[in-house]
Amino acid sequence: MTLAPEAVRSMFDRIAPVYDVMNRVMTVGLDRRWRRLAAESVVMPGDRVLDGACGTGDFALADRRAGASEVIGLDFSERMLARARSKAPDIEWIQGDLLALPFADGSFDAATVGFGVRNVADLDLALRELRRVLRPGGRVAILEITTPRGIVRPFFSLWFDRIVPVLGKVLPGGKAYAYLPASVKRFPGAEELASRLAEAGFGAVRFTLLGGSIVALHTGVAEVTG
Ligand SMILES: C[S@@+](CC[C@H](N)C(=O)[O-])C[C@H]1O[C@@H](n2cnc3c(N)ncnc32)[C@H](O)[C@@H]1O
Prior knowledge:
Oligomer: single chain
Strand content: 15-25%
CATH topology: Rossmann fold
Bound molecules: S-adenosylmethionine
Number of domains: 1
Mean pLDDT: 91
């Protein structure tokens, strides 16, 4: 099941009021640590940073804590952005599409995307857009749920295939959570995402598995083009 961009946008508009609470519950509070690690792996003091698919703004805030002097958060859901604005009115929050970023080439020193690339209609286009708006040598961090390996796998299946869909039935805006397992299964594994980043023009691509391998943090450096 692949949702059209408009359906994804309205789904996130609906879950905006419960999004932060659900994140904390579903990750037993680890999501904040993952964003901090991701931000610290690519943001350097004084950087101008784009947080794409910023949602309610927690990754952009982690980028700022990691030393960014300017952070721009971009998302296509106005209600997610309204939450972000209420947390940090001084950050610039822009409504826009990851697939057509409203910035000139080479505008940023670093870019982060947390749990956002899984939902885009064209992953390769999103990665190319991130590459385009980074200066050569600029760094990207992609944090995303991945299908886990080893001992965690059966527990993940139980959680994702049985418990999350039930939460989806009882929570307001819960349809988004019913959609979550399918979107994770469809998404490329960590090795493949690393190859797609390389194809999009990133060098030194690496990934680390976090949370017992349920989340992958990919980083890469924008290569000089031409
Ligand atoms: C799961 S939330 C992640 C929010 C935040 N990055 C975080 O770390 O919690 C995914 C976000 O991606 C946004 N999104 C999905 N596709 C998008 C697109 N094509 N352009 C801009 N935002 C998009 C949704 O509106 C939603 O806010």
